[in-house]
Amino acid sequence: MTFDPTAAAFADSGIYGLPYSVAESRVVVLGVPFAATTSYGGGAEDGPAAIVNASRQVDLFDGETGRPYEAKIAYSDELEHLRTLHARVRPLASRVIEVGGDIGDDENLHNALSAVNEASEQVNDDVYEAVRRWHAQGKLVALVGGDHSTPFGAIRALAEAHQDVGILHIDAHADLRVAYEGFRYSHASIMHNVATLVPQVSRIVQVGIRDFSEDEAHTIATSSGRIVSFFDHSLAEQKLCGVPWSKLVEPIIDALPAKVYVSFDIDGLDPCLCPNTGTPVPGGLSYHEASYLLGALMRSNKLIVGCDINEVAPGHDGTEWDANVGARLLYKLIGRMLQTHAVERTR
Length: 347
Ligand SMILES: [Mn+2]
Prior knowledge:
- This protein is 39% helix and 15% strand.
- The protein is of the alpha/beta class.
- It has an eight-stranded parallel beta sheet with strand order 2-1-3-8-7-4-5-6, sandwiched between helices.
């Protein structure tokens, strides 16, 4: 059977309705169904499956990026076993969260915390090995969480492979907490862990941040420029005073080195685009602002070495809106990433 990119997708087809295997694809979408340390609303462990479902409604031709599917895109369920791990340790994490991480000398709670931290280390290792292998095969990886702890292994693998890498971090939260609620690899600690454990990441550039602690603000202010934050309130104030988004994006792009990994927490967007995400916060980027930012990154001649989208949670009532937005944002991310790797731009 020949593949018709304009036909409706079959229910059992691959991501975006494509018929390709991981082996033959340039882009691997790596699902990581793990969200054990989620502190508020749950459901991000169902993000990968929901995004694959919603992706079949996305038109393959994209007005901005053209025909990303021609590079061949496939979803990998290689880490599906992490869903079982999530189900095993999530109740243990909940008990630690119930006491706000203040486990005192309760032996059961200490054991629960250790089990969650060990599970997170397995997630990190499994993601790292998969991404390292695919990078060595010349593939590009787009990770789909899961909560925001899931891309740590991907960032580590790609930063080691490329050396000097910057992170474009779009999020409502700074994610710079040290072992939030006791979890060493908490969703709220990902950028702290990247900054302290991945020396090849030379800079973290944050956009949309609007819910952060005084300690996190201090961490940013004293990072000697390693962490640069474009706070949501500041971007919003300038927009309200008439500064065009195209101007506001310039210093964001300029702050990044030549090679960039994009880590996109869906809650960086206006929560009307992600009402079921675990920790929604009013404000944030519009879909077009986020899309323009990714376009500006592509046009800047920097190389997108990898990307993730995380914290997408389908509604408890089966609402697919969050996954619909996530699937379209992911396609845009993949399209922009591929454009930066086009042969005519290879340096
Ligand atoms: Mn986050």
